Amino acid sequence: MNDRPRGVVVTGAAGDLGRALCSGFLDDGFTVFAADVAQIDATARVVPVRVDVTDRRAVVDLAEQASVETRLEAWVNAAGIFVACPVLDADESGWQRILAVNLTGTWHGCAAALPALARAGGGRIVNVGSVSGQIGGSAVHPAYGASKAGVHALTKTYALEGARRGVLCNAVAPGLIEGSMSGEFEARQRERMAQANPMRRLARMDEIARVIRFLAGPSNTYMNGAIVPVNGGAYMPS
Ligand SMILES: NC(=O)c1ccc[n+]([C@@H]2O[C@H](COP(=O)([O-])OP(=O)(O)OC[C@H]3O[C@@H](n4cnc5c(N)ncnc54)[C@H](O)[C@@H]3O)[C@@H](O)[C@H]2O)c1
Fold this sequence. Notes:
By secondary structure, the chain is an alpha/beta fold. It is built from 7 helices and 7 strands, in the order βαββαβαβααβααβ. The protein has one domain: Rossmann fold, CATH 3.40.50.720. The chain has a 7-stranded parallel beta sheet, sandwiched between helices. Bound molecules: nicotinamide-adenine-dinucleotide. The site of nicotinamide-adenine-dinucleotide has 30 residues, from α1 and α3.
């Protein structure tokens, strides 16, 4: 049983953070179930799975597949969407879509992962929240921060539920990261945000991925229910 490969599921695996996670988890020795609505190519120890996280059945099937093919150890909910817009222009369809992917999709991931990881003898769930879920944001659809605050709350609920089953659940709350999502802001806006950060720059994807890999890995034995700020010191909750 224990000679099966170590498995991790990453949703949003085709995205900037997802790709950094896949390559990091490969270095850590995992077989990676790379789930996304977008196309991903299969490579050694990368199993692409076309999944829309808003489809609960598909997410449950993903957990089943990963549990059959590997000793599932970790699950990262990184699928997400973001809409940059003046708050007063925010529309209803954006609200529904952002909540469906970011919040309901993460709930589907947590709900599918917890029993699968528990059956495998324990494991780790890591959710991707945001500083927007802690302090809100301007020039962003208000659903984004609301969805991420919901992700933080989900993290705590699954941390409580998972603890007695050997499953730890944590989240990262990144600030703005270099990549296509922050590219939704105009260059001038992005530069202003970088300069407003105590470190005078945005995060790099690998800097977020490394924290997630720690939370998802066996070195994390007692961190549970934490919302870990990875924001360069832009917001320091006590
Ligand atoms: N980039 C940032 O500045 C930043 C900051 C804080 C938090 N985050 C969060 O980090 C996570 C990753 O973001 P990123 O920067 O890699 O963005 P990205 O746009 O590069 O990647 C997001 C991925 O999610 C996938 N996706 C979207 N809807 C999906 C669905 N319904 N089902 C499955 N997959 C779906 C997309 O296809 C894409 O590959 C997101 O949850 C995002 O909210 C990003």
